[in-house]
Amino acid sequence: MPANRLAHEPSPYLRQHQHNPVNWYPWGEEAFAAARGESKPIFLSIGYSTCHWCHVMERESFEDPATAEILNAGFVSIKVDREERPDVDKIYMSFVQATSGQGGWPLNVFLTPELKPFYGGTYFPPDQRHGRPAFRQILQQIASLWQTRKSELEQSAHNLHAQLERFADRGTTSGSIQFAPSLHQAAQKFKAEFDPRHGGFGGAPKFPRPSQPLFLLTYHARFGDPEALRMVIDTCHAMDAGGIHDHLGGGFARYSVDAGWRVPHFEKMLYDNAQLAQLYLEAYLADGDARLAHTVHDILGYVLRDMTHAEGGFFSAEDADSEGHEGKFYCWTRSELAALLSPEELALATRAFGITEAGNFVDHSHPQPLLHQNVLSMADPHLSEGDRALLASIKARLLRTRHQRVRPQRDDKILTSWNGLMLGAFARAYAVLGDSRYRVAAERNARFLHTHLWDPQTRTLYHRWHDGERDSVQLLNAYAFLLSGLLDLYEATLDASHLEWAQSIADAMIQRFHDPASGGFWQSPDSPDLILRCKEDYDGAEPSGNSVAALALLKLSAITGRAELRRVAEQTLLWSAPRLEQLPQAVPCMLMALAFAMEEPYRAVVVGDPSQPETRDLLAACQRVHQPHKVTLGQSGPVEPFARSLPAGPSPRVYLCSGNACQPPVTRPEEVRQAITSGKSMA
Fold first, then answer.
1. CB atoms near residue 151 (< 10 Å)
2. For a disulfide at 420, which of 11, 153, 451, 485, Cβ 3.0-4.6 Å?
3. Is residue 474 part of a domain?
């Protein structure tokens, strides 16, 4: 099959479709002009490279010549990578959710040539099944309606677009926020959704959604709530033991199809693993269980080994499928294990991993499903030290064998937004765990992003880099997530260059995306290829750019003393007030910003040369306490004036300050930890 236009696109997802018989266009003016010139409706299909059901629909429909013939005759067909263009995805996902009550990927929407939607859904099968209409039947009906009742479809699209505009326009938020009552109410709602049997929140399918437990850790630190802490620790241990965790190669899959974390949807996403590393770090600081720290090492080891570009950027994802089957790379039959292991080893593996002859996973989406497949999970948590040592040897052997299998496809594009999340995870892991490899990885990543995706002359941050080429897209998430990661790196190292760059990104973010009239940040700049300008207000699998921006600006204001940054953050909180009060489950990351804004934060000012071991020990002590209501800063670079005025002494020291009051300086790491833990008033 000759290649279509998508062969020239940098997106690995678009390139997956380059040999489809469908006459695909990428999102852009060429496609829009074709729809206008030929007076055809647009068929818009949005997905991402590691999306299992995207692969299924491609195999069933987009590779089918008869389906392609209908599409090519009656439609202008456009493919979009949602990870490159979340702003496009947000608009049409909002439409499908509003009109059908559900969402997901692949997202398939029919538009007028003016880009206004009139019908859409998610996965459409090739024939009627599970209550879903057949895709070819839908195409034929819409093509017929476009020929016979075009004006009605256009009027419907016009009306639906007007409704979307009203939905997107939340107007100006006035009034104030009740800080403590809002936080208490939110915590109670999360507690009501907690699954006491399996951990996590809600039922199947179950997503980690790390911002939820991270908020509960913040709540525990603020109000001393042991129940909130227990829920988080139980959830962390349950996820760690489940099949959602790759017990051989490290890292976590995107979600579990069951309530018990046992059978995952096998794709691995950079943003999940970045947030989970942060969650396990904070849980370790709050609880002290070394197993939680071990999970952090496990996640970051996977990223360093399998997801890092030679120059330091982090790749985006790994697929769920290999050789056409979901989970084939990760699953094992009992007979496969019996051929690899001794009888003693097999007995232990069977008990520890819950192996059965029948298996616990079947890839029902494939016409010839693999049978008797076992997802590995820690079914027996009560292993002796001897068992654990033997199991480690078994796992190493299974991993070596797995390396010989056909690996799932890796999406090797580098996204600034997700890299910012992982940059922060490596920086925090260095600060908390002291492993110098993590500092090296974080600083290499920062250099990569600065070199390839930042234009210092125009203070422009681009979103995607792939094979030496960057895009021209501007997205709030890129600025906000990288700003957050750079602040983590600054606090871990006190390298003033990281703070200077963070400040430049914050200023550019406010200039490009902030809405001074109504508060909050637009997802992207105004553009002719977007029928709506949206503000994201949902902390889902990824936190929203608004939530991350609000918390990062509050921290940056505390470090630099720039009051205007705090005002922008507070205006964003006011814009979010209806969500915070009416549906706090939707905005756990914004709740963390609310908790940070509740009172003047502590500032741990480290006085001394950060390159010297004694100063580094004090800096590490500042980071190894679970106190989310704190920032750490030095005395060089654009830090606030009061910190620069604090006197040095014969040896490095730390001042714990609030406002213009400080505790007496301390010079030993254990004193630093005690001062931060005690939370004494700044008298």
1. 7
2. 485
3. yes
Confidence (pTM): 0.95
- Separation of alpha carbons 8 and 27, rounded Å: 13
Bridge partners of 322, per DSSP, are 325
Residue 154: CATH number of its domain = 3.40.30.10
Q: Determine which helix (DSSP H) or strand (DSSP E) holds 670, and give its type and residue range.
A: helix 669-678
Q: What is the tally of structural domains in the chain?
A: 4
Q: Do both 282 and 336 map to the same domain?
A: no
* 3 state SS of 504: helix
Reported as a pLDDT band with limits 50, 70 and 90, residue 169 is low
In a domain, 618, yes or no: yes
Residues 316 and 337 in one domain: no
Q: Which of 462, 515, 527, 464 is nearest to 115 (CA)?
A: 527
369 prior amide bond cis, ω within 30: no
One domain, residues 539 and 492? yes
Structural contact between residues 634 and 616, judged by C-beta atoms closer than 8 angstroms:
no
- The secondary structure of residue 237, as a DSSP letter, is H
Please tell me whether residues 578 and 462 are part of one structural domain.
Answer: yes
Q: Are residues 566 and 639 in the same domain?
A: no
pLDDT attached to residue 170? 61
Look up residue 522 and give its amino acid: W
Residues 193 and 114 in one domain: no
Strands 42-47 and 24-26, bridge-based pairing: unpaired
Q: Which of 93, 55, 75 is nearest to 139 (CA)?
A: 75
Tens digit of each residue's pLDDT (9 = 90 or more) over 114-166: 999 999 999 999 998 877 889 999 999 999 999 999 999 999 999 999 998 88
351 in the same domain as 403: yes
> Residue 670 is part of a domain; what is its CATH number?
3.40.30
CA 36 to chain centroid: 37
Judged against a pLDDT cut of 80, whether residue 643 lies above it is answered with: yes
Residue 470 in tokens: 């960057």
Q: Are residues 398 and 434 in the same domain?
A: no
Instruction: Give the separation between CA 246 and CA 254, rounded to whole angstroms.
Output: 11
CA distance 115 to 88: 11
Quote the domain boundaries for residue 373.
321-407
| pLDDT tens, position by position, 412-469 | 999 999 999 999 999 999 999 999 999 999 999 999 999 999 999 999 999 999 999 9
